[in-house]
Structure prediction request, 293 residues.
Amino acid sequence: MPNTAGTAVIDGTSLVIRTVSPPATPGLSSDGMIAVTIAVSDQAPVGTTASLTLDGAASSGLDPLGNSCMPNPIGLVGSVATGAVSTTDVLPGGGFLPAGSLVAVVGIGFQPGAQLLIDGVSLASTSWVDSSRIEVVTAVDRQLDGRMVSVTNPDLTGATYFSYLRATDFGKSARPLLAATEAIFPVQPLSSAVFSAPTSGTFFGLALQNPEPADSIVSVDLLDAGSVVASASLALPARTKVSREVSELFPGVIPSAGSVFALTATVPVQMLGLSGNESDSSVTPVLPALASP
Prediction:
């Protein structure tokens, strides 16, 4: 689901992932939500399996039509367990790449003559470097985030991987629950957006990621009844990310019911709202509207 956004909250040895898809995503409504909890021991040896539980009826793994919208974890584990071929990273993993960019695929078990495909991206050339690295040159301008990368060896063994940007964290939030949360950003960068803070929950935050090679200045305006009551700005260097509670952006200002946050960026960035609830240590993703009022 390349249009899916979400959060991953790390709590000791538990990882809770919540995802939400925009209304335009076929098969899911705007309130479609999957929550997955994975718990493993601190020192898990290679080959250890982890139990996976779905959180409640909203996490059935089925869309409103009853179709599965989650990968089969048994199949995924089986494909990795063989260990013959595996992709561990794509460099760079995301961002906008102009034609002629070099992309390196890193892993194990790559054979001479292996075929490499990046979904939706035409390649000008492919070079096998060694069993752990294949390099390609792109033939078109494309956003790389969320692309499926597949490697197929001459003996038909292979591996697939979804690329993502491993951005540099531009400092953790002072709120521990938000600092333990990793945003799963929507792929599409935006130059402007609006967030309405949810009425439930104990705090609201904003997560921003700059996938572009140029720096971006993101301005955040707090609007009440259409008037700007507070403003802040964040400088995001190329391929960095940041998550902040709105109280960290607007110290001493308490947003009233119905207020909104309008964001504008000098270079488009990926944006996500974060609705936190300290009582159950949960952080729910909030998708932006596409235009400021």
